[in-house]
TrEMBL record, chain A:
InterPro entries: Fe/Mn_Superoxide_Dismutase (IPR050265), Mn/Fe_SOD (IPR001189), Mn/Fe_SOD_BS (IPR019833), Mn/Fe_SOD_C (IPR019832), Mn/Fe_SOD_N (IPR019831), Mn/Fe_SOD_N_sf (IPR036324), SOD_C_sf (IPR036314). SUPFAM superfamilies: Fe,Mn superoxide dismutase (SOD), C-terminal domain, Fe,Mn superoxide dismutase (SOD), N-terminal domain. Mn(2+) binds at residues 29, 74, 159, 163. Keywords: Antioxidant, Manganese, Metal-binding, Oxidoreductase. The keyword Plastid does not apply. This is Superoxide dismutase. It is an enzyme of class 1 (oxidoreductase). GO terms for molecular function: manganese ion binding; superoxide dismutase activity. It holds the Pfam family Sod_Fe_C. It comes from the Eukaryota. Belongs to the iron/manganese superoxide dismutase family. It comes from Rickenella mellea.
Automatic annotation (TrEMBL), chain B:
The keyword Iron does not apply. InterPro entries: Fe/Mn_Superoxide_Dismutase, Mn/Fe_SOD_BS, Mn/Fe_SOD_C, Mn/Fe_SOD_N_sf, SOD_C_sf. The keyword Signal does not apply. One of its GO terms (cellular component) is mitochondrion. It comes from the Eukaryota. Keywords: Metal-binding, Oxidoreductase. GO terms for molecular function: manganese ion binding; superoxide dismutase activity. Residues 76-161 form the Manganese/iron superoxide dismutase C-terminal domain. Gene3D superfamilies: Iron/manganese superoxide dismutase, C-terminal domain. This is Superoxide dismutase [Mn], mitochondrial. Pfam families: Sod_Fe_C. Its EC number is 1.15.1.1. It comes from Rickenella mellea.
Amino acid sequence: MSGQHKLPDLPYAYNALEPYISEQIMKLHHQKHHQTYVTALNAAEGAYANAKTPKERIGLQAALKFNGGGHINHSLFWKNLAPNNGDGGKLYDGALKKGIEQAFGSFDNFQKEFSKAALGIQGSGWAWLGVNPQTKVVEITTTANQDPLLTHYPVVGVDMWEHAFYLQYQNVKPNYLEAIWNVINWKEGEERYNDAVQKGLDAGLNVL
Amino acid sequence: MSGKHNWPYAYNVLELYISEQICITINIIRRRANAMTPKGRIGLQAALKCNGGEHINHSLFRENLVPNNGDGGKLSFDNFQKEFSKAVLGIQGSGWAWLGVNPQTKVIEITTTANQDPLLTHYPVVGVDMWEHTFYLQYQNVKPNYLEAIWNVINWKEGEERHTDAVQKGVDAGLNVL
Protein backbone atom coordinates (compact mmCIF):
# COMPACT_ATOMS: atom_id res chain seq x y z
CA MET A 1 0.00 0.00 0.00
CA SER A 2 1.38 3.38 -0.89
CA GLY A 3 2.45 5.88 1.72
CA GLN A 4 3.19 3.26 4.35
CA HIS A 5 6.76 2.31 3.67
CA LYS A 6 8.98 1.50 6.61
CA LEU A 7 12.72 1.55 7.10
CA PRO A 8 13.83 -2.10 6.94
CA ASP A 9 16.04 -3.41 9.74
CA LEU A 10 19.64 -4.12 8.86
CA PRO A 11 20.29 -7.87 8.63
CA TYR A 12 23.30 -7.42 10.96
CA ALA A 13 24.57 -5.11 13.71
CA TYR A 14 25.76 -1.59 12.88
CA ASN A 15 29.35 -2.57 13.60
CA ALA A 16 29.20 -5.89 11.77
CA LEU A 17 30.86 -4.62 8.59
CA GLU A 18 33.88 -3.21 10.44
CA PRO A 19 36.63 -2.52 9.62
CA TYR A 20 35.50 -2.19 5.99
CA ILE A 21 32.52 0.05 6.59
CA SER A 22 32.49 1.81 9.93
CA GLU A 23 29.71 1.65 12.49
CA GLN A 24 29.45 5.43 12.32
CA ILE A 25 28.77 5.34 8.58
CA MET A 26 26.30 2.46 8.88
CA LYS A 27 24.31 4.27 11.58
CA LEU A 28 24.12 7.56 9.68
CA HIS A 29 23.51 5.86 6.37
CA HIS A 30 20.66 3.70 7.66
CA GLN A 31 19.05 5.83 10.40
CA LYS A 32 19.39 9.22 8.69
CA HIS A 33 19.84 8.93 4.93
CA HIS A 34 17.67 5.88 4.23
CA GLN A 35 15.06 6.95 6.78
CA THR A 36 14.79 10.33 5.04
CA TYR A 37 14.03 8.62 1.73
CA VAL A 38 11.32 6.52 3.39
CA THR A 39 9.71 9.50 5.09
CA ALA A 40 9.81 11.61 1.94
CA LEU A 41 8.51 8.75 -0.22
CA ASN A 42 5.51 8.33 2.07
CA ALA A 43 4.82 12.06 1.86
CA ALA A 44 5.15 12.09 -1.94
CA GLU A 45 2.90 9.06 -2.36
CA GLY A 46 0.34 10.62 -0.04
CA ALA A 47 0.40 13.84 -2.03
CA TYR A 48 0.14 11.87 -5.29
CA ALA A 49 -2.93 10.02 -4.06
CA ASN A 50 -4.57 13.37 -3.26
CA ALA A 51 -3.52 15.09 -6.47
CA LYS A 52 -6.44 16.01 -8.71
CA THR A 53 -4.74 17.06 -11.95
CA PRO A 54 -2.13 15.63 -14.28
CA LYS A 55 0.03 18.68 -13.68
CA GLU A 56 0.11 18.07 -9.93
CA ARG A 57 0.89 14.41 -10.48
CA ILE A 58 3.68 15.24 -12.92
CA GLY A 59 5.03 17.76 -10.42
CA LEU A 60 5.41 14.96 -7.88
CA GLN A 61 7.28 12.61 -10.21
CA ALA A 62 10.74 13.89 -9.29
CA ALA A 63 10.08 13.34 -5.59
CA LEU A 64 8.68 9.85 -6.23
CA LYS A 65 11.65 8.88 -8.37
CA PHE A 66 14.26 10.31 -6.02
CA ASN A 67 12.84 9.01 -2.77
CA GLY A 68 11.38 5.82 -4.18
CA GLY A 69 14.66 5.09 -5.88
CA GLY A 70 16.53 5.86 -2.68
CA HIS A 71 14.33 3.46 -0.71
CA ILE A 72 14.70 0.67 -3.27
CA ASN A 73 18.42 1.15 -3.75
CA HIS A 74 19.26 1.17 -0.07
CA SER A 75 16.94 -1.75 0.72
CA LEU A 76 18.79 -3.78 -1.92
CA PHE A 77 22.14 -2.50 -0.63
CA TRP A 78 21.84 -3.60 3.00
CA LYS A 79 20.96 -7.10 1.85
CA ASN A 80 23.85 -7.36 -0.60
CA LEU A 81 26.30 -6.65 2.21
CA ALA A 82 27.25 -9.13 4.90
CA PRO A 83 29.82 -9.39 7.70
CA ASN A 84 33.21 -10.64 6.58
CA ASN A 85 33.16 -13.30 9.28
CA GLY A 86 29.98 -14.61 7.65
CA ASP A 87 29.04 -14.59 3.97
CA GLY A 88 30.70 -11.25 3.27
CA GLY A 89 33.31 -11.27 0.52
CA LYS A 90 32.86 -14.90 -0.46
CA LEU A 91 31.80 -15.83 -3.99
CA TYR A 92 31.08 -19.54 -3.71
CA ASP A 93 31.16 -21.84 -6.74
CA GLY A 94 27.85 -21.70 -8.50
CA ALA A 95 25.82 -20.14 -11.28
CA LEU A 96 26.73 -16.53 -10.47
CA LYS A 97 30.45 -17.20 -10.27
CA LYS A 98 30.21 -19.01 -13.58
CA GLY A 99 28.18 -16.20 -15.11
CA ILE A 100 30.73 -13.59 -13.99
CA GLU A 101 33.67 -15.60 -15.27
CA GLN A 102 31.96 -16.19 -18.60
CA ALA A 103 31.06 -12.53 -19.03
CA PHE A 104 34.31 -10.98 -17.79
CA GLY A 105 36.92 -13.68 -18.25
CA SER A 106 37.77 -13.83 -14.56
CA PHE A 107 36.51 -12.51 -11.24
CA ASP A 108 39.61 -10.30 -11.06
CA ASN A 109 38.79 -8.72 -14.37
CA PHE A 110 35.20 -8.20 -13.27
CA GLN A 111 36.42 -6.36 -10.16
CA LYS A 112 38.67 -4.14 -12.29
CA GLU A 113 35.82 -3.29 -14.65
CA PHE A 114 33.40 -2.68 -11.78
CA SER A 115 35.82 -0.32 -10.04
CA LYS A 116 36.40 1.53 -13.30
CA ALA A 117 32.67 2.04 -13.72
CA ALA A 118 32.17 3.08 -10.10
CA LEU A 119 35.05 5.57 -10.27
CA GLY A 120 33.68 6.93 -13.54
CA ILE A 121 30.48 8.20 -11.97
CA GLN A 122 30.36 11.98 -12.21
CA GLY A 123 28.38 13.17 -9.22
CA SER A 124 26.30 10.90 -7.01
CA GLY A 125 25.16 7.49 -8.11
CA TRP A 126 25.33 3.73 -7.86
CA ALA A 127 27.36 1.03 -9.57
CA TRP A 128 25.60 -2.25 -10.34
CA LEU A 129 26.19 -5.78 -11.45
CA GLY A 130 22.94 -6.70 -13.13
CA VAL A 131 21.35 -9.21 -15.48
CA ASN A 132 20.53 -7.98 -18.98
CA PRO A 133 16.85 -8.95 -19.32
CA GLN A 134 17.21 -9.87 -22.99
CA THR A 135 20.49 -11.79 -23.04
CA LYS A 136 20.42 -12.97 -19.40
CA VAL A 137 24.13 -12.10 -19.24
CA VAL A 138 25.57 -10.19 -16.28
CA GLU A 139 26.72 -6.67 -17.06
CA ILE A 140 28.11 -3.72 -15.15
CA THR A 141 26.16 -0.49 -15.26
CA THR A 142 25.70 2.71 -13.27
CA THR A 143 22.76 4.88 -12.30
CA ALA A 144 22.76 8.57 -11.39
CA ASN A 145 21.61 10.02 -8.09
CA GLN A 146 18.89 7.74 -6.67
CA ASP A 147 17.54 6.56 -9.99
CA PRO A 148 16.35 2.97 -9.56
CA LEU A 149 17.96 0.38 -11.81
CA LEU A 150 15.52 -0.07 -14.66
CA THR A 151 17.66 -1.46 -17.47
CA HIS A 152 18.81 -4.62 -15.66
CA TYR A 153 17.75 -6.98 -12.90
CA PRO A 154 19.95 -5.99 -9.94
CA VAL A 155 22.40 -8.56 -8.59
CA VAL A 156 24.74 -6.41 -6.45
CA GLY A 157 24.72 -2.64 -6.02
CA VAL A 158 27.35 -0.33 -4.51
CA ASP A 159 26.43 3.11 -3.21
CA MET A 160 28.88 5.70 -4.59
CA TRP A 161 27.28 8.74 -2.92
CA GLU A 162 29.93 10.43 -0.80
CA HIS A 163 27.89 9.83 2.37
CA ALA A 164 28.50 6.10 1.84
CA PHE A 165 32.24 6.40 2.42
CA TYR A 166 33.47 9.92 3.13
CA LEU A 167 33.80 9.74 6.91
CA GLN A 168 36.12 6.77 6.57
CA TYR A 169 37.82 7.08 3.19
CA GLN A 170 37.39 10.76 2.37
CA ASN A 171 38.04 11.36 -1.32
CA VAL A 172 39.98 8.09 -1.82
CA LYS A 173 37.23 6.13 -3.54
CA PRO A 174 39.56 3.27 -4.61
CA ASN A 175 40.16 2.48 -0.93
CA TYR A 176 36.42 2.31 -0.31
CA LEU A 177 35.95 -0.01 -3.29
CA GLU A 178 38.85 -2.21 -2.24
CA ALA A 179 37.33 -2.51 1.22
CA ILE A 180 33.74 -3.16 0.20
CA TRP A 181 34.65 -6.32 -1.73
CA ASN A 182 35.19 -7.87 1.71
CA VAL A 183 31.56 -7.42 2.68
CA ILE A 184 29.68 -8.07 -0.55
CA ASN A 185 27.03 -10.73 0.07
CA TRP A 186 27.46 -12.91 -2.99
CA LYS A 187 24.98 -15.45 -1.59
CA GLU A 188 22.21 -12.85 -1.85
CA GLY A 189 23.62 -11.87 -5.22
CA GLU A 190 23.33 -15.42 -6.48
CA GLU A 191 19.72 -15.73 -5.31
CA ARG A 192 18.87 -12.59 -7.26
CA TYR A 193 20.84 -13.82 -10.25
CA ASN A 194 19.06 -17.17 -10.35
CA ASP A 195 15.65 -15.56 -9.94
CA ALA A 196 16.48 -13.18 -12.77
CA VAL A 197 17.92 -15.73 -15.19
CA GLN A 198 15.53 -18.58 -14.47
CA LYS A 199 12.30 -16.75 -13.68
CA GLY A 200 12.73 -13.25 -15.06
CA LEU A 201 12.23 -11.84 -11.58
CA ASP A 202 13.46 -8.32 -10.72
CA ALA A 203 14.77 -8.11 -7.16
CA GLY A 204 14.13 -4.37 -7.21
CA LEU A 205 10.39 -4.98 -7.53
CA ASN A 206 10.13 -7.26 -4.55
CA VAL A 207 12.54 -5.73 -2.06
CA LEU A 208 10.09 -3.24 -0.52
CA MET B 1 45.62 27.73 -19.04
CA SER B 2 46.93 29.36 -15.90
CA GLY B 3 45.03 30.45 -12.88
CA LYS B 4 45.30 31.29 -9.24
CA HIS B 5 46.89 28.35 -7.44
CA ASN B 6 46.80 29.41 -3.85
CA TRP B 7 44.16 29.67 -1.21
CA PRO B 8 43.91 33.36 -0.23
CA TYR B 9 44.16 32.48 3.49
CA ALA B 10 45.49 29.77 5.82
CA TYR B 11 43.58 26.50 5.87
CA ASN B 12 42.47 26.79 9.47
CA VAL B 13 41.33 30.41 9.33
CA LEU B 14 37.76 29.49 8.34
CA GLU B 15 37.26 27.24 11.39
CA LEU B 16 34.69 26.87 13.11
CA TYR B 17 32.59 26.98 10.02
CA ILE B 18 34.46 24.84 7.56
CA SER B 19 36.96 22.49 9.15
CA GLU B 20 40.56 22.50 8.08
CA GLN B 21 40.39 18.95 6.77
CA ILE B 22 37.59 19.82 4.39
CA CYS B 23 39.53 22.81 3.02
CA ILE B 24 42.58 20.60 2.41
CA THR B 25 40.42 18.02 0.65
CA ILE B 26 38.88 20.61 -1.64
CA ASN B 27 42.34 21.89 -2.57
CA ILE B 28 43.47 18.36 -3.44
CA ILE B 29 40.46 17.97 -5.71
CA ARG B 30 41.26 21.30 -7.35
CA ARG B 31 44.88 20.31 -7.98
CA ARG B 32 43.77 17.02 -9.50
CA ALA B 33 41.69 18.94 -12.03
CA ASN B 34 44.66 21.25 -12.75
CA ALA B 35 46.93 18.27 -13.46
CA MET B 36 45.08 17.24 -16.62
CA THR B 37 47.34 17.68 -19.67
CA PRO B 38 46.06 19.24 -22.88
CA LYS B 39 46.27 15.83 -24.53
CA GLY B 40 44.27 14.31 -21.76
CA ARG B 41 41.59 16.89 -22.33
CA ILE B 42 41.14 16.09 -26.02
CA GLY B 43 38.10 13.91 -26.64
CA LEU B 44 37.25 13.69 -22.94
CA GLN B 45 34.40 16.15 -23.07
CA ALA B 46 32.50 14.58 -20.22
CA ALA B 47 35.56 14.46 -18.00
CA LEU B 48 36.45 17.99 -19.02
CA LYS B 49 33.01 19.24 -18.12
CA CYS B 50 33.24 17.52 -14.76
CA ASN B 51 36.78 18.60 -13.95
CA GLY B 52 36.64 21.94 -15.78
CA GLY B 53 33.34 22.79 -14.19
CA GLU B 54 34.71 21.57 -10.87
CA HIS B 55 37.73 23.83 -11.23
CA ILE B 56 35.67 26.89 -12.14
CA ASN B 57 33.16 26.21 -9.38
CA HIS B 58 35.81 25.66 -6.72
CA SER B 59 37.79 28.72 -7.83
CA LEU B 60 34.68 30.85 -7.52
CA PHE B 61 33.82 29.11 -4.22
CA ARG B 62 37.11 29.76 -2.47
CA GLU B 63 36.95 33.42 -3.46
CA ASN B 64 33.44 33.55 -1.93
CA LEU B 65 34.75 32.40 1.45
CA VAL B 66 36.49 34.74 3.81
CA PRO B 67 37.32 34.47 7.52
CA ASN B 68 34.70 35.74 9.89
CA ASN B 69 37.11 38.33 11.28
CA GLY B 70 37.33 39.83 7.78
CA ASP B 71 34.49 40.67 5.43
CA GLY B 72 32.48 37.52 6.13
CA GLY B 73 29.06 37.67 7.71
CA LYS B 74 28.53 41.42 7.40
CA LEU B 75 25.33 41.30 5.33
CA SER B 76 22.19 39.19 5.81
CA PHE B 77 18.89 39.19 3.96
CA ASP B 78 16.50 36.99 5.93
CA ASN B 79 14.08 36.08 3.23
CA PHE B 80 16.77 35.62 0.65
CA GLN B 81 18.53 33.25 3.03
CA LYS B 82 15.33 31.28 3.54
CA GLU B 83 14.77 30.95 -0.20
CA PHE B 84 18.38 30.08 -0.81
CA SER B 85 18.29 27.34 1.84
CA LYS B 86 15.10 25.96 0.32
CA ALA B 87 16.72 25.73 -3.10
CA VAL B 88 19.80 24.14 -1.63
CA LEU B 89 17.89 21.48 0.27
CA GLY B 90 15.96 20.67 -2.89
CA ILE B 91 19.03 19.52 -4.78
CA GLN B 92 18.66 15.82 -5.53
CA GLY B 93 22.18 14.44 -5.71
CA SER B 94 25.37 16.50 -5.97
CA GLY B 95 25.31 20.12 -7.07
CA TRP B 96 25.69 23.80 -6.35
CA ALA B 97 23.35 26.55 -5.28
CA TRP B 98 23.86 30.02 -6.72
CA LEU B 99 22.85 33.59 -6.37
CA GLY B 100 23.25 34.95 -9.87
CA VAL B 101 22.32 37.82 -12.16
CA ASN B 102 19.75 37.05 -14.86
CA PRO B 103 21.53 38.27 -18.02
CA GLN B 104 18.30 39.59 -19.56
CA THR B 105 16.59 41.28 -16.63
CA LYS B 106 19.76 42.03 -14.61
CA VAL B 107 17.81 40.91 -11.54
CA ILE B 108 19.42 38.55 -9.03
CA GLU B 109 17.90 35.11 -8.81
CA ILE B 110 18.56 31.88 -6.98
CA THR B 111 19.32 28.83 -9.07
CA THR B 112 21.01 25.46 -8.79
CA THR B 113 23.27 23.39 -11.00
CA ALA B 114 23.75 19.62 -10.99
CA ASN B 115 27.05 17.86 -10.35
CA GLN B 116 29.89 20.13 -11.53
CA ASP B 117 27.96 21.81 -14.31
CA PRO B 118 29.25 25.38 -14.64
CA LEU B 119 26.66 28.11 -14.21
CA LEU B 120 25.63 29.06 -17.73
CA THR B 121 22.19 30.63 -17.26
CA HIS B 122 23.27 33.44 -14.94
CA TYR B 123 26.28 35.54 -14.03
CA PRO B 124 27.47 34.06 -10.72
CA VAL B 125 27.44 36.26 -7.63
CA VAL B 126 27.79 33.72 -4.81
CA GLY B 127 27.92 29.94 -5.07
CA VAL B 128 27.64 27.28 -2.37
CA ASP B 129 29.01 23.79 -2.90
CA MET B 130 26.42 21.19 -1.88
CA TRP B 131 28.43 18.09 -2.71
CA GLU B 132 28.61 15.96 0.43
CA HIS B 133 32.40 16.20 0.51
CA THR B 134 32.05 19.89 1.35
CA PHE B 135 30.34 19.38 4.69
CA TYR B 136 30.07 15.72 5.60
CA LEU B 137 33.09 15.40 7.89
CA GLN B 138 31.76 18.22 10.04
CA TYR B 139 27.99 18.23 9.62
CA GLN B 140 27.26 14.72 8.31
CA ASN B 141 23.74 14.55 6.89
CA VAL B 142 22.55 17.71 8.65
CA LYS B 143 22.71 20.11 5.70
CA PRO B 144 20.77 22.90 7.48
CA ASN B 145 23.60 23.17 10.02
CA TYR B 146 26.14 23.54 7.23
CA LEU B 147 24.04 26.22 5.57
CA GLU B 148 23.51 28.07 8.85
CA ALA B 149 27.26 28.03 9.41
CA ILE B 150 28.36 29.06 5.94
CA TRP B 151 26.45 32.33 6.04
CA ASN B 152 29.12 33.43 8.52
CA VAL B 153 31.85 33.15 5.92
CA ILE B 154 30.24 34.31 2.69
CA ASN B 155 32.31 37.10 1.13
CA TRP B 156 29.64 39.59 0.15
CA LYS B 157 32.29 42.12 -0.88
CA GLU B 158 33.40 39.74 -3.63
CA GLY B 159 29.77 39.07 -4.43
CA GLU B 160 29.10 42.76 -4.85
CA GLU B 161 32.05 43.18 -7.21
CA ARG B 162 30.68 40.37 -9.36
CA HIS B 163 27.16 41.78 -9.19
CA THR B 164 28.31 45.22 -10.24
CA ASP B 165 30.41 43.83 -13.09
CA ALA B 166 27.48 41.74 -14.24
CA VAL B 167 24.83 44.45 -14.05
CA GLN B 168 26.90 47.36 -15.35
CA LYS B 169 29.22 45.66 -17.83
CA GLY B 170 27.63 42.28 -18.59
CA VAL B 171 30.80 40.63 -17.34
CA ASP B 172 30.56 36.94 -16.28
CA ALA B 173 32.76 36.16 -13.27
CA GLY B 174 32.87 32.52 -14.34
CA LEU B 175 34.68 33.44 -17.55
CA ASN B 176 37.45 35.38 -15.82
CA VAL B 177 38.07 33.37 -12.65
CA LEU B 178 40.56 30.92 -14.19
